[in-house]
Amino acid sequence: MLTHAFAYKQWADQRTLQAVRTLAPANQPQAYAFACQQLNHMVMVEELFRARLQGLPAPHAATNSVQLPTLDELERRLLASNAWLTSHIAALTPESAAQIIRFVFADGQAGSMSQQEILFHILNHGTYHRGAIGHALEQAGAQRPADTYTLYIHAAEPQRRWC
Questions:
Q1: pLDDT digits (tens, 9 = 90+) for 134-158
Q2: Considering only Cβ atoms within 10 Å of each terminal Cβ, which end of the chain, N or C, has fewer?
Q3: Strand (E) or helix (H) holding 127
C-alpha cells in the first residue's frame, strides 16, 4: 500500500505544482507567495524526516524559512524527495517498517515514530498542505487541481472503470 500511496503523492504533488505555475506572481502575489510558502514547508518537513530515516543530522533548524526558494527550486527538491522516498519504500521490510526512530523535532521536543508512521505522516502532511494550496488557488480564481486518490487510481489503472 505504501508503494501505491507514494505514487499517488508524487502524482498529486505534480498536479499541484502545475496548478501553482498557472498563477501570475505579479497579478496574484498573495496566492503565489502562499502556495510557495506551503510547498517550502512541505519539502522542508520531508527533508527533516528523510534525514531522520537515514540517521543523519537535521538539515534544517525549522520547518519553514524566511527566504522562499523559487518555484523551480521547490519543484526540484520535491521531486528529489519523492524519488528518495519511492526508493526507500521499495527496500522496506516489515521489520524495518516497524523500526522505531528517536529524534528531536525542530521545536526541540523529543519524539519517536516507526518508519511506517513517519511515512504515513509525510503522506498525510502533504495532503493537508496541498488542500490549503488548492483553497488559495480557488481564491485567486485559478483552477484547483483535482487530486483525490480515487481520481489517481482510475487514471493510473483505467481498467478499474469497468462500467
A1: 999 999 999 999 888 888 988 888 8
A2: C
A3: helix 115-139
Please tell me whether 121 is known to bind a ligand: no
60 is in an annotated binding site: no
Q: 49 exposed, middle or buried (CB, 10 Å; 0-12, 13-18, 19+)?
A: buried
User: Domains of the chain (ranges plus CATH)?
Assistant: 2-160 (1.20.120.450)
**Dihedral-angle region of residue 108 (phi above 0 means left; psi in -120 to 50 means alpha; beta otherwise):** left
* DSSP character at residue 159: G
Q: Which grid coordinates belong to 131?
A: 488542500
Which of 37, 34, 36, 56 is CA-nearest to residue 47? 56
